[in-house]
Amino acid sequence: MMVKVASTGRTSERAYLTGLGASSVVDRDDLVVAPERTLGPERWAGVVDCVGGSTLAAVLRTLRYGAAVAASGLTGGNGLETTVYPFIVRNASLIGVDTVQTPIAERRAVWQRLASAWPPDLIDGMVHDELTLDQLRPGLELILAGGVRGRMLVRPGG
Ligand SMILES: NC(=O)c1ccc[n+]([C@@H]2O[C@H](COP(=O)([O-])OP(=O)(O)OC[C@H]3O[C@@H](n4cnc5c(N)ncnc54)[C@H](OP(=O)(O)O)[C@@H]3O)[C@@H](O)[C@H]2O)c1
Hints:
By secondary structure, this protein is of the alpha/beta class. It is 30% helix and 24% strand. β1 (5-8), α1 and β2 (24-27) form a beta-alpha-beta unit. The relative contact order is 0.11. The structure holds NADP nicotinamide-adenine-dinucleotide phosphate.
């Protein structure tokens, strides 16, 4: 059975994350296990990471044999301190994700899968607020202050 673990700095959002499908929720600081060791315990069969930085370094050290990380972001920093050991001892893979140049046909296929896998009300519930262009600055400040859960939608013509 696959156990899906969500990581967050806001464990107050535990119920929200389990509602999205997480089996359990860990504080992002708890991802860093045995930092004094080159490789940590084998915890993860696969990881989707939008954080980068020390979070990505920590999950690379704790991948199971043959596991992979799909890395898409740098919220926690654009540096990556790691060694070759996860790759040559644990047969691990680090897979980059870019959405900017993804062909439209591939995007449509992914959107279709998302739309059929998740009920529409779950997706609607991810919308924190809708903004016009004039409201962008306070909206972005709120995001940076950690005051947003989910997505802000921007209406260019609003
Ligand atoms: N590769 C691509 O094509 C592509 C496409 C879109 C976005 N991106 C990049 O992906 C990243 C995430 O974008 P997003 O829209 O998914 O953002 P997001 O919804 O805000 O998710 C980022 C998450 O990072 C966590 N976080 C914030 N500050 C952190 C810190 N200091 N240390 C560790 N974790 C931290 C937050 O988790 P909690 O609030 O739960 O703690 C937040 O939910 C960005 O760097 C963005 O530029 C890449």
